[in-house]
């Protein structure tokens, strides 16, 4: 009873504050997943080879997506903390906040350029990372998809990181509305370009990539246009892109770069998982692409609470209330457990209809069913540790320890186990997936221990306040 009280008996207004932040973020995540699912569903009508190609090409794009999440969430730790400080030291806090955004934008554009160049130069090599060289059809179709996605990196990165910044100061509705618009733009573009409707050319896989690009251009234009020209809460303008940020770069590196490194190495770890899956055969790849979409759909509220956890924790600590942040941490832990159970129930109930919707062979459909069973178990642990690692502990500035924990559990435990399960022990799809995701279980246990220790709460500096901070010099 005492444990339950600690997890679920929060101060008045806590749950409403979390839900006000989390619900729009969750809805936006659902819409983003819907945009991605459009490619899978529509391309799936072309065949399993095309579905596998798009799925594996998007594994590479997801590496960049995770990098950008690292940049955005790393900046969010600082932005949330500075936003919480603004009542005590408004000028200093807001100057530091704008410098943080400036650094984030510069890094995002640089990262997009690197991925765009690599995609342009070595698309075939990229595809061969994920699938056996003999799978010529998958490789050829994947190259086509990547070639049409080169410019997408710039728009995806800027819209994603700018959205995270807006959320960090409580502006969650505007990005949601933009995502709704992007969904319908992508729907129309895909319907026209993949199948040749509306008088447009029938482009197949290339049409799916181009439709996604069109949606990203729309999304970035509106989000960045709002942040750079209209928003008054942050007051960031194009002139602030030329700020002198040397006095804050050390703090940014200390807090944000571990997040980027953690998420980046995690991205490579997930790529290694995808490489294992890609070598288990086309049926396993197709089955996994269907189940991954289902898992994302079931976890949208978890993602919303993750980001709400980072924002609430950062703002609470910015106000100097450490004990309150610790109590809220246990509340988020309870949230994670409850949402994990709800997500598991959703997967169990919806797995049948979702698998039936895709045009899969009998063997692939059976494999997808086994993977769904495994996901329904893993998601309980994943929800708990995600809200802690990507939310509360990250919001507390405990980024270095998280960097170590995230990657030790992944590289030392789950990837070796997954390789053994698939290629040495030849276990069933259920147990292969459990082994590949075993880090989620152990990390959930570690998070509880770390939260209880209180060592996750770190101090954050603001840098100097000078004329350059406001773009005047």
Short précis:
The protein is 81% helix and 0% strand.
Helix/sheet category? mainly alpha
Major sheet summary line: none
Structure annotation, total helices: 17
* Percent range of helical residues: over 70%
- Tell me the overall shape: globular
Radius of gyration, in Å, reads 22 Å
H and E string: HHHHHHHHHHHHHHHHH
Report mean pLDDT, rounded to a whole number. 84
Question: Which stretches are poorly predicted, pLDDT < 50 over at least 5 residues?
Answer: 465-473
Strand tally, please? Answer: 0
Oligomer, anyone? single chain
Roughly how many Å apart are the termini? 59 Å
Strand fraction band? under 5%
Secondary structure elements and pairings:
Elements (H helix, E strand, L loop, with lengths): L1 H7 L5 H31 L3 H38 L4 H32 L1 H6 L7 H12 L4 H17 L4 H23 L9 H26 L15 H33 L3 H17 L1 H19 L3 H36 L4 H34 L3 H26 L4 H8 L1 H16 L20
């Amino acid at each position: 009873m005492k444990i339950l009280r600690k997890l679920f008996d929060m101060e008045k207004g806590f749950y409403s504050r979390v839900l006000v932040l989390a619900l729009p973020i969750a809805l936006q995540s659902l819409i983003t997943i819907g945009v991605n699912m459009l490619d899978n569903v529509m391309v799936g009508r072309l065949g399993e080879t095309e579905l596998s190609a798009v799925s594996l090409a998007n594994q590479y794009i997801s590496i960049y997506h995770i990098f950008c999440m690292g940049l955005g969430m790393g900046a969010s730790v600082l932005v949330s903390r500075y936003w919480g400080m603004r009542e005590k030291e408004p000028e200093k806090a807001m100057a530091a906040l704008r410098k943080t955004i400036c650094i984030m934008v510069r890094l995002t554009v640089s990262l997009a350029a690197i991925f765009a160049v690599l995609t342009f130069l070595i698309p075939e090599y990229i595809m061969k990372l994920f699938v056996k060289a003999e799978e010529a059809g998958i490789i050829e179709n994947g190259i086509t998809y990547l070639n049409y996605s080169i410019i997408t990196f710039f728009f995806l990165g800027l819209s994603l990181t700018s959205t995270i910044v807006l959320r960090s100061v409580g502006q969650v509705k505007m990005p949601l509305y933009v995502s709704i618009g992007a969904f319908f733009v992508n729907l129309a573009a895909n319907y026209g370009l993949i199948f040749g409707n509306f008088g447009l050319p029938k482009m197949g896989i290339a049409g799916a990539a181009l439709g996604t690009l069109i949606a990203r251009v729309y999304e970035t234009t509106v989000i960045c246009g709002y942040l750079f020209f209209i928003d008054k809460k942050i007051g960031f303008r194009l002139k602030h892109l030329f700020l002198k940020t040397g006095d804050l770069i050390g703090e940014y590196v200390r807090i944000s770069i571990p997040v980027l490194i953690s998420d980046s190495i995690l991205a490579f770890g997930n790529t290694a998982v995808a490489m294992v899956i890609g070598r288990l055969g086309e049926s396993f790849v197709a089955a996994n692409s269907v189940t991954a979409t289902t898992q994302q759909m079931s976890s949208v509220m978890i993602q919303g609470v993750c980001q709400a956890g980072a924002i609430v924790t950062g703002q609470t600590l910015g106000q100097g209330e450490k004990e309150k942040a610790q109590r809220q941490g246990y509340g988020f832990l309870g949230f994670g457990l409850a949402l994990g159970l709800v997500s598991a129930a959703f997967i169990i109930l919806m797995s049948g209809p979702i698998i039936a919707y895709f045009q899969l062979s009998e063997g692939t459909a059976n494999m997808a069913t086994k993977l769904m069973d495994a996901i329904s178990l893993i998601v309980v642990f994943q929800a708990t540790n995600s809200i802690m690692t990507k939310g509360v502990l990250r919001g507390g500035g405990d980024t270095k320890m998280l960097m170590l924990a995230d990657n030790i559990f992944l590289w030392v435990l789950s990837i070796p186990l997954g390789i053994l399960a698939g290629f040495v022990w030849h276990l069933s799809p259920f147990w292969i997936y459990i082994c590949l995701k075993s880090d989620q279980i152990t990390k959930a246990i570690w998070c509880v221990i770390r939260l209880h220790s209180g060592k996750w709460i770190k101090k954050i500096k603001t840098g100097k306040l000078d004329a350059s901070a406001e773009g005047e010099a």
